[in-house]
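Annex B. Sample input.
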Amino acid sequence: MRTDAVNERPIDSQAVESNESKNARARATEHEVKPNYTQTRTIELDPEYLAAHRVITDLSASPAGAAYKILRTQILQRLRTNGWRTLGITATRQNHGKTLTALNLGISLAMEVNQTVLVADLDLRHPSLANYLSPAHLNGISDYLLGYLDISEIMVHPGIARLVILPGRESMVNSSEQLSSPRMVQLVEELKTRYPDRIVLFDLPPLFVGDDVMAFAPNVDAILLVLEEGKTTREELRRAYELLDGQRILGTILNKSIHNLKSTF
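Annex B, continued. Sample output.
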């Protein structure tokens, strides 16, 4: 922000700015102020790389894309009915597909008219969201939490309209403490309130690897639980609901199914 020096010389009547000039300058200044997400760095994506990592950018091109459209509609109905805008996505264990589910869900939600979406990688133990988008090095939320970078230097726009990504980078051993730290609480509040039309998806660590999800759960409106067909047992599902007792569980997603993607709400 520029601060003009005080001019102590007598005022020259010819130098006094007219009302018309003031209004024009005000309009120009207003025009220059843009929402932060429009100033976010854009990264160029390789369609072949995305396809190889099962990232779906064309919902009409595959059965999986159609499944995500159904999932999008179900979730939007629930969120809008309850006035919710933040959703945590977790699984019982690692490698059940929660991160890819969060990303593909974010892409499908962003394709909804007048809907902006932010997907944040908060799996501080094993951040991997950026790996699905690009092999290039990206700054991550650990850089923000450690005070190295401002959040505006970390967010990226993946070239998909109305979608912003907050990637992770390095693993953090004190992940649950970081997720409940004042710096994280301040960030989450900023992400939730800056844009009233934004849905925020938080890719969270698996439930059974520590207390990370329980530490962060009060910051989200609801939780979405990703299950893996043939891997997640009934006992694990029962335990997951016990651990999330008191939290709003939006529903479950059965991933890696022979029928693509199933959801229960």
